[in-house]
Amino acid sequence: MTAAVKIQPQGFCVHYPKTSWGVSFVEDAAGKFRFLLSGKDFKFEPRDRYRYPTHDDARRAAFCFLELLKRLERSRMRLSILAEIGIIKFPQETYRTHELWLLVDRTRYTWEVMAADGWCIRSQRWYKHPDTALVKAKAHIDRELAVAQIRDIVGWV
Q1: Tens digit of each residue's pLDDT (9 = 90 or more) over 133-146
Q2: Domain spans of the chain, in order of start
Q3: Residue 146: which residues within 8 A CB-CB, separation 6 or more?
Q4: pLDDT one-digit tens code per residue, 106-122
Q5: Which residues touch 116 (CB under 8 Å, ≥6 apart)?
């Protein structure tokens, strides 16, 4: 089961000085904010799915996470600590013009696909092995492309 999410144009990204992390703020349809942290090698999404009522509240929460990430920068336990408090996203490959990401939550794995037109699809199922998640993601991309081709030829599906 998947959930399609359109990235809203209200989102914006801020790069903080003296750190390699960028913070992307996204405003949802209800006018509430959430944030994602982007590093060199991976992205981090706090497990807290709370939507902050104002941009200032989201900015304060993001600043707290940035301080934590700066303190964990040299730690060998960094990824395991981050996996306990959020979801870590690793880029995998570009498959048929879709950017494929592996998501890690403690000992569970799932996938997320970013299309070139801005659509983001994330699986709602979690798997025990990362390879299983990536195979399922590729199968989903193949299915979506096949449906799109049928829709283009027939006009409906």
Answers
A1: 999 999 999 999 99
A2: 2-154
A3: none
A4: 899 999 999 988 888 99
A5: 97, 98
